[in-house]
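To illustrate the input format used throughout this study, we show a single complete record. The first block contains the structure-token representation of the backbone; no residue identities are included at this stage. The design step must infer an amino acid for every position from geometry alone.
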């Protein structure tokens, strides 16, 4: 029963993550919601709620304890700005210019970027699995972005640029979080990182500067979904699933996120998606499954190991 509960939690969380991006596109497209405002309000509200969950159900001393070590505090601020804020902002802007399917799939290129980074830094040796992973990613990207045509792109260039930047930001986010995760709970790290990122972006677009006159009840429901279900509950369910599943199992089941983004983009928003784009999607999802199913490299800087706490956010 505990294992079944864990599977249901991680699948639900991953589906919420995937649908959340599609709902955000709906807000941009139909209601003219400003991307800066949405990212700001999403980070601030979700960050506060995640720390509230930590305070109620876990070790509450960590919430303020993380700030007592000056070095850790500086790392947390850097992670909040260059990790959390960068991932959230680039991902949402990519959705605004394109769609949630392409933005999510491009963001999932982060593991390939990590492989390349570690090989260039000589912290890892390129293996046969790595070559297959990179090949799947490159072939998948080609079909996803061109739909098989070498003469033109099937996705707007700004969406591609911001999507690739989102993958780079996620790669940094993943690598930089490792020492923080070794000492503090994921909810504390992500909660504070969200608040830091949201606070910083507030100087560009204060959360109270928003024209709500054109928003319908449906628009408010979409906002609640993006903030609560697509962020807070998705991450919370993912973390709770680790009580009964191994991190690798949770990561594997979490790969339904890009599939949820693709399906809702195509069948709900009616975005055009060509035959070769489906092939590209299959290649990228295959890459994700390959990385989740095979043994992770032993380099301590590559990714969190099975006995460490994984970090996810979309």
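Output of the design step:
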């Amino acid at each position: 029963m505990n294992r079944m509960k864990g599977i249901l939690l991680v699948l639900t969380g991953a589906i919420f993550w995937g649908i959340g991006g599609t709902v955000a596109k709906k807000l941009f497209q139909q209601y003219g919601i400003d991307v800066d405002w949405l990212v700001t309000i999403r980070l601030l509200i979700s960050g506060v709620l995640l720390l509230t969950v930590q305070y109620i159900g876990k070790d509450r001393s960590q919430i303020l304890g993380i700030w007592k070590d000056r070095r850790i505090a500086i790392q947390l601020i850097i992670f909040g700005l260059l990790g959390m804020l960068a991932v959230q902002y680039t991902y949402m802007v990519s959705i605004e210019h394109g769609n949630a399917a392409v933005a999510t799939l491009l963001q999932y290129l982060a593991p390939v970027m990590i492989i390349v980074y570690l090989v260039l830094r000589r912290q890892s040796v390129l293996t046969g699995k790595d070559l297959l992973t990179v090949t799947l990613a490159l072939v998948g990207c080609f079909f996803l972005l061109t739909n098989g045509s070498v003469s033109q792109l099937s996705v707007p260039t700004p969406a591609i640029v911001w999507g690739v930047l989102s993958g780079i930001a996620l790669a940094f986010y993943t690598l930089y979080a490792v020492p923080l995760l070794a000492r503090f709970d994921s909810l504390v790290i992500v909660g504070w990182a969200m608040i830091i990122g949201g606070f910083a972006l507030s100087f560009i677009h204060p959360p109270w500067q928003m024209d709500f006159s054109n928003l319908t009840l449906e628009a408010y429901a979409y906002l609640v979904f993006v903030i609560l279900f697509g962020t807070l509950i998705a991450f919370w369910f993912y973390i709770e699933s680790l009580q009964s599943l191994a991190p690798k199992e949770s990561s594997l089941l979490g790969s339904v996120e890009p599939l949820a983004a693709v399906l809702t983009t195509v069948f709900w928003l009616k975005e055009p998606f060509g035959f070769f784009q489906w092939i590209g999607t299959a290649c990228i999802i295959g890459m994700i499954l390959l990385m989740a199913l095979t043994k992770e490299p032993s380099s301590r800087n590559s990714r969190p190991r099975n006995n460490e706490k994984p970090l996810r956010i979309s």
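Structural context for interpreting the output: Residues 297-308 have pLDDT under 50 and may be disordered. Residues 2-293 form one domain.
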